[in-house]
Amino acid sequence: MSNNREAASSRRLPARTLAAVGLGLTLFAGVSMAGDKDGAMEMSNRSIIGATCMGCHGFEGKGSGNIPRLAGLSKGVIAGKMLDYKSDGLEGTVMNRIAKGYSDEEIQAVSEFFATQ
Q1: Quick one: pLDDT at residue 96?
Q2: 42/112 Cα distance (integer angstroms)
Q3: Burial of residue 74 (number of CB atoms within 10 Å: 0-12, 13-18, 19+)
Q4: 3-state DSSP helix/strand/coil percent for the chain, to nearest 5?
Q5: Torsion angle of alpha carbons 81, 87, 89, 94, nearest 10°?
Q6: Would you say the pTM of this structure is higher than 0.70?
Q7: How confident is the model over 97-115, as pLDDT tens digits?
Q8: Does residue 112 contact residue 46 with C-beta atoms inside 8 Å?
Q9: Are 52 and 106 spatial neighbours (Cβ–Cβ below 8 Å)?
């Protein structure tokens, strides 16, 4: 190995250290964005979960092509559909798999988020 490679290799951080630093920065960013008064943290969690849906359901859940609008639907309607997808009571292309990845509390949070859009 050349001297330059040996020097570069000795300066690298172990993978565990990099992972720990990345996790710490992620958590710090989440906490700093969340705030700590008037339910700001709760709202941040809802909006983070809601943001994952926007890839398909469009900006702020306003619908995109054949994918339905979520914005403005009642919390009960959104949560009911998500729970139906989760239990395979409704058939979907990917929604059954997606819904199974959410806890019932997360489904309530995302339903609140889109009901207020």
Answers
A1: 93
A2: 11
A3: exposed
A4: 70, 0, 30
A5: 70
A6: no
A7: 999 999 999 999 899 989 9
A8: yes
A9: no
Longest distance between any two alpha carbons in the chain, whole Å: 65
Half-sphere exposure of 52 (CA within 13 A, CB side): 15
Tens of pLDDT, residue by residue over 29-54, are: 444 444 444 455 455 666 777 788 88
Alpha carbon of 23 to those of 11, 18, 27, 83: distances in Å? 21, 9, 6, 31
Tokens 């309530």 belong to residue = 108
Kindly state the tokens that stand for 108.
Answer: 């309530």
Strand ranges for the chain from DSSP E: none
Consecutive H or E run containing 90: none
Structure tokens at 37: 């008064």
